[in-house]
């Protein structure tokens, strides 16, 4: 029997997966403000000991990282970036085609001044995976990037401006192939893991590394 005759006689079974659904009510008294705060935080994806993503089905719960589920490696810390006022934004969109949609999130901001420091940030982070923690004007802390899908620079340019009164800026856009997650804790509470004790090592001398 040929392959094509077997194919014609085959029975195809389509599996329909039941999905979670819920109401999306709106409260008119709820105020929502645009924009992000001028200070954001970041670290290399390799500096994190853990970023535990939620596994809940609920719309809201599936996008909230529980307090304590973000931890830095010992000796690592978040770095701060002060961005130009009213020019930073977070966004999320879907890319692909019908039934093949994927989430993608972006962070865009400007740094004031085409300076060696700002250009150094542009060049040295250009090909590095990062994770950003960004507070918005509503008090939410958003996480861009995670251990599975870090954020990478997708656009960057610097300009001195042509006239004295024109902007002298460095522009950045970082993107991650994942959705945005809210962190239920505060940025200040994100700590580092405890120092790991060395067993049988050589850092304190050869004779002290072994027990006879």
Report the major sheet: 6 strands, mixed
Shape: globular
Say how many strands there are.
Answer: 12
Uncertain segments are 202-212
Strand content: 25-35%
- Write down the Rg: 23 Å
Oligomer: single chain
Descriptive key words:
2 helices, mainly beta, four-stranded antiparallel beta sheet, six-stranded mixed beta sheet, disordered C terminus, 12 strands, single chain, globular, 212 residues
Question: What's the helix and strand layout?
Answer:
Blueprint lengths: L2 H7 L29 E6 L3 E4 L12 E2 L4 E3 L6 E4 L6 E7 L6 E11 L3 H9 L5 E6 L5 E4 L7 E8 L9 E8 L4 E3 L29
Folded structure, characterized:
This protein is mainly beta and 212 residues long. The chain is built from two helices and twelve strands; from the N terminus they run αβββββββαβββββ. The strands form three sheets. The chain has a six-stranded mixed sheet, with no helix packed on it. The protein has a four-stranded antiparallel sheet with strand order 6-7-11-10, with helices on one face. Strand 8 and strand 9 form a beta hairpin. Residues 202-212 have low confidence and may be disordered.
């Amino acid at each position: 029997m040929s392959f094509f005759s077997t194919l014609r006689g085959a029975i195809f079974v389509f599996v329909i997966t039941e999905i979670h659904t819920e109401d999306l009510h709106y409260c008119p008294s709820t105020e929502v403000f645009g924009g992000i705060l001028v200070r954001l935080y970041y670290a290399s994806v390799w500096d994190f000991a853990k970023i535990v993503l939620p596994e809940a089905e609920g719309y809201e719960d599936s996008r909230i990282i529980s307090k304590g589920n973000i931890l830095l490696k010992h000796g690592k810390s978040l770095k701060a970036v002060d961005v130009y006022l009213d020019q930073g934004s977070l966004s999320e969109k879907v890319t692909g085609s019908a039934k093949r949609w994927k989430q993608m999130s972006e962070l865009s901001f400007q740094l004031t001044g085409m300076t060696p420091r700002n250009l150094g940030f542009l060049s040295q982070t250009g090909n590095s995976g990062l994770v950003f923690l960004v507070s918005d004007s509503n008090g939410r802390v958003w996480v861009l990037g995670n251990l599975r899908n870090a954020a990478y620079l997708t656009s960057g340019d610097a300009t001195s401006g042509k006239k004295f009164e024109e902007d002298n800026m460095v522009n950045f856009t970082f993107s991650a192939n994942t959705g945005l997650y809210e962190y239920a804790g505060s940025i200040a509470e994100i700590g580092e893991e405890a120092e790991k004790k060395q067993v049988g090592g050589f850092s304190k001398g050869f004779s002290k590394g072994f027990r006879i």
